[in-house]
Amino acid sequence: MTAKVLIVEDEAPLAELLRYNLEAAGFAVRHAGTGEEAELMMAEERPDLIVLDWMLPSVSGVELCRRLRARPVTRAIPILMLTARGEESDRIRGLSTGADDYVVKPFSLPELMARVRAILRRAAPERLADVLRAAEIELDRASHRVTRAGREVRLGPTEFRLLEFMMESPGRVLSREQLLDGVWGRDAEIDERTVDVHIGRLRKALVRGKERDPIRTVRGAGYAFGERRPA
Ligand code: CA
Known about the structure:
Layout: E1 4-8, H1 12-24, E2 28-32, H2 35-44, E3 49-53, H3 61-70, E4 79-84, H4 87-93, E5 101-105, H5 109-123, E6 131-134, E7 137-140, E8 145-148, E9 151-153, H6 157-167, H7 176-184, H8 192-206, E10 215-218, E11 222-225
Parallel strand pairs: 1-2, 1-3, 3-4, 4-5
Antiparallel strand pairs: 6-7, 7-8, 8-9, 10-11
Helix pairs in contact: 6-7, 6-8, 7-8
This protein binds calcium ion.
């Protein structure tokens, strides 16, 4: 089942960028440029997640969020808020608006995608693809099993999450900070070297004999899973 994401954002280039990346990740995407338009679209079809910009013309993102939370039909739809750096992000930190999570502009796409998936994993796990496949590795979220060319790979829970997170953005270089944020969470008090330790364990579990290492170390940048992304 494909998860439906509604983007509510008046900046067209940003909305396009979000649409492109969410569609590439397998989501069905609709876009509204205003709060009013978003409400009309929601009346037609209930989205599984709303990516909502804080600053919108006329009805603001915050006001729209309040309206949605006040109505029984829309109350449970998860909302990821996009905010600008500054006062707003402090206020939203208190979750006074009822948003499920937020990202501060300018945000990195892997961070945004990780938050979208984390929210859906909690709210609508059946909407996420169960099996991720790349570089002869198969990861099944439902059964928590990983195989490489049919052989079972045994992973601890952290290595499983790490592999899952990397396989969600195949080919993309992820910094240690992005990996920490995506796997351990924004507030985890963990040293970046911890990432290297777990990458080491993951590699050891994935690679047997002369098999190719599916994880690339990118000096000074981080790690990537699978083939280099074509530019
Ligand atoms: Ca805006």
